[in-house]
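Hey team,

Filing this mostly as a record. A colleague (T.K.) asked me to run one chain through the structure pipeline before their review meeting, and I want the input and output archived in the tracker in case anyone asks later how it was produced. No errors, nothing strange. Just documentation.

Input sequence:
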Amino acid sequence: MLSKVRVGLVGIRNWAIGVHLHQLRSHPGAEVAAICGRDLNRAEQAAVQHGISRAFSDYREMIDKGDLDAIIISTPDDTHYPITLAALEKGLHVVCEKPLAMSVAQAREMRDRAETAGVVHMPFFTFRWIPAFQRMKQLVN
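Output structure:
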């Protein structure tokens, strides 16, 4: 049996907690191992509230010390590029909110670095996995 994928969540706002964290916790193959927010106190509160073992206020520290396999980036748009590059540099898989980057050149660089690292880098199509939409798909097919 494969071990769980250890995921770090970068972002602690409503979308990160209400959607990404909820969906991660519902998947038997995922373990939310760390959470990161700009305000350490809020990140620690979120970690305690949701049973996450580690909290960080700096994504670079989380990437270095979080013992992760992957990260989910749910932060302001202009932060996606640097966070993604830092994660790819460490060989982590990256799922990133839309837009991936602030320019096509940045997005291409992200893609190229992921390919070089041999990891997955993709946008999060959140609604695809919501149970009601999955059921609708079943009904249509």
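Quick notes for T.K.: The helical segments are 14-26, 40-50, 59-65, 80-89, 104-117, 131-140. The two ends are 32 Å apart (CA to CA).
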